[in-house]
Predict the 3D structure of the following.
Amino acid sequence: MKPIAIIYGSSGGNTQDVATRIAKRLAGTEVILIDVSKANVTDFEIYSNLILGTSTWGVGDLQDDWDGFLPKLKNINLAGKTIALFGLGDSSSYSDSFVDGMGILYETIKGKGCKIIGYISAEGYTHDSSRAEEAGMFVGLALDEDNEYDKTDNRVIDWLSDISSKFQ
């Protein structure tokens, strides 16, 4: 398998922590962790396998570093790449915009010729709505480190068992 680049944006540290935990669970695979605040276009171009992670701030806002990188992401050729997404949000205080940041990343890369993997059922999550949900499925791994931190490890393990074999 080719290396996997995990590119994440983290303002409070939770998304970075989850990115690190995902990387550790991908033992036996070369994993490169990249903070999107330090990323450049080349980081997206040289890796065939990408995991993109973000948090959601306020009422559905994309994490600041990702928001700043978004214009570049819109112009990157993602054809032939395999991409998985994970997002963090607060399903209690912001139940109407849970993991919307992940939805914004999804909307940006959808239709750019990449293979998006890692959809998960929204069943078992407590939220009202999300830009990251389509037909009862999240477009990636949805996590709530504020209210459901005790479910994160199992959710990561289950998600990785589903997507690991789908990378190139």
About this structure: The chain has one domain: 4-166. The longest strand covers residues 49-57. The two ends are 6 Å apart (CA to CA).
